[in-house]
Amino acid sequence: MRTEDTRRWLALGALAVAMLTIGLDVTVLTVAIPTLAVDLDANTAALQWFSSAYTLALAALMLPAGALGDRYGRKKVLLAALVLFGVASVACAFAASAGQLIVARVVLGIAAAALVPLSMSVLPVLFTDPAERQRALTIWVTSTAVGLPLGPILGGWLLQHFWWGSVFLINVPLVVIGALAVATLVPESRSGTLFRVDLLGALLSAAGMLGLTYGFIRLGERGWDDVLGWLVVASGVATLAVFLWWQRRTEYPLIDLALFAAPGFRWGTAISILVSFAMFGMFFTVPQYFQAVLGVDALGSGLRLLPLIGGLVIGSRLVDVALPRLGVRVVITAGLFVLAGGLGLGAFTTVESGYWLTALWTTVLGAGMGMVMPAAVGLAMGELTAERSGSGSALLQALRQAGGTIGVAVLGTVLATRYRADLGALDRAPISDGVNAGAALARESGDPAMLAQVQQAFVAGMNTMLALCAAGCLVAGLVTALWLRRPTAPAVAVDTAESTYVG
Q1: Which end of the chain is more exposed for a tag (fewer CB within 10 A), N or C?
Q2: Which DSSP string corresponds to 230-293?
Q3: CA–CA gap between residue 416 and residue 235 (Å, rounded)
Q4: According to the model, what pLDDT value does residue 194 have?
Q5: What angle do the packed helices 389-423 and 98-121 form, to 10 degrees?
């Protein structure tokens, strides 16, 4: 292998490590929440903001971060984001109060908002061959997805042996490796056209994504009858509508609205949003099933997600083999049907079925995700020119993030509604607040009948949620099979007349 080829694949490995860190940070905090409540004297609102602060900053600032990379240099902004992510991780680890941790989590989200789209946008710089670029995208997407189930596993192990700050310090060595590799191996690139960053568009997009994301987080926590939650969602939608209006009129728009007219970007983005919707809903639900029904601790819950990682690896390997031979329509359609099969199988879970069924359907689910996500992202990226790859990648990732947030809210509400309906006479606080509270009360009171009812009600809600996701994937698979066409242009053609590369 030539030295240049080695450098490119080493650079991809560094970017994959950075994205693994992002995936870890999304879920690693879930296992530390009980410890944080005690050590930082955090109330329920503070515990919610530990997660929400990161999510909101991530969703709000992706679009401006992508434009900054296009204007001032993607490598430069990516390096700054990596350094900021490392510093914020240290600040999180040594926070002495709930307020300090929330502020540090906001900074962590700001850094992640630049890391996610810009680490993707440099792939066309490194890999000009379409087949190599698709393989690189597969590795990039898989590294992010693998980090999600690894978070509870690694976090649970660290909490058993060290103090809670260790769940943030694990980011530091990964960030150092990523920063050194990006600095030495990734060439600089920026838009070949000098343009002013659309500050008004940046403010409107940030405010709109902030309102939309926070509104659905609030609705997911407080129920669909929360008036303030709907008002916040409505304000977010209205602000995004103004943002789109402004993008059609400004000389230097933050995003290229013509992308939505491109079939590849439109299909790839829609499928990516659907998978994020189902994936985040699954991550919200299955760990609760492990702990409240199977009775395992946080580390045991994380370890039981290992079959999902195995499925992801299998699915990503299938993409590498099948995509060049069968084409994107066949691969995405097959992946969506595999997803529907895994989710549908999970919908037959009972309190008595045990772990074996969950291991089976999460493996199938992982394989479907490993097939669909890289192919869908590659399909969308195929419509991006190197000129605005930063802002285009940011748009794709922002929409995926919004889909995941809305998925948690919608599917969480479906689960909660069925759970409360099946509680019968037990539909009262604190049992109605959630399965963890209900199971804890039943175990404390020594009432096996109450515990059985709580567990049955939760499993019924989980099955309803999984069946809904399965139906959505099945319909999407049928639609894809009938209407998705092969892209007319190769993926992400790098046009040196349009984009400037330095290094």
Answers
A1: N
A2: HHHHHHHHHHHHHHHHHHTTSSS-SS-GGGGGSHHHHHHHHHHHHHHHHHHHHHHHHHHHHHHT
A3: 26
A4: 56
A5: 130
pLDDT digits (tens, 9 = 90+) for 97-120: 888 888 998 899 889 888 888 887
Report the Cα–Cα distance between both ends of the chain, in Å, rounded: 21
The top-level CATH class assigned to 255-492 is mainly alpha
What does each C-alpha distance from 423 to 282, 291, 426, 435, 444 come to in angstroms? 22, 19, 5, 10, 18
The helix (H) or strand (E) run that includes residue 38 is helix 33-39
d(CA 99, CA 36): 12
Query: For residue 87, what pLDDT band results from cuts at 50, 70 and 90?
Result: very high
Q: Are 15 and 140 in contact (CB under 8 A)?
A: yes
Which of the 8 DSSP states describes residue 498?
T
Contact 380, 290 (CB under 8 A): no
Give the pLDDT score at 494. Answer: 38
Coil/strand/helix, residue 490: coil
Q: What is the pLDDT of residues 315-362, one digit of tens each?
A: 888 888 888 888 888 889 999 999 999 999 999 988 888 888 989 999
Residues 308 and 283: beta-carbon distance below 8 Å: no
Mind listing the pLDDT tens digit for each residue in 221-271?
677 778 888 998 899 899 989 988 988 888 777 777 777 777 888 888 888
Beta-ladder partners of 190: 500
Domain with CATH 1.20.1250.20 in the chain: 1-197, 255-492
Q: How far apart are CA 456 and CA 134, in angstroms?
A: 44
How far apart CA 57 and CA 55 sit, in angstroms, is: 6
Dihedral angle sign, alpha carbons of residues 5, 6, 9, 11: negative
Q: Give the span between the Cα atoms of 99 and 86, in whole angstroms.
A: 19
pTM: 0.77
- Asked if residue 336 lies in contact with residue 477, where contact means CB atoms within 8 angstroms, the answer is yes
Q: What is the C-alpha separation between 115 and 103, in angstroms, rounded?
A: 19
216: Cβ–Cβ under 8 A, 6 or more apart, which residues? 229, 233, 405, 406, 408, 409, 410
The structure tokens 């001032």 sit at 72
Say which residue, 153 or 501, is predicted with more confidence: 153
Q: Tell me which residue of 403, 372, 399 sits closest to 137, measured CA to CA.
A: 372
Number of CB atoms found within 10 A of residue 209's CB: 27
According to CATH, the topology of domain 1-197 is Growth Hormone; Chain: A; (1.20.1250)
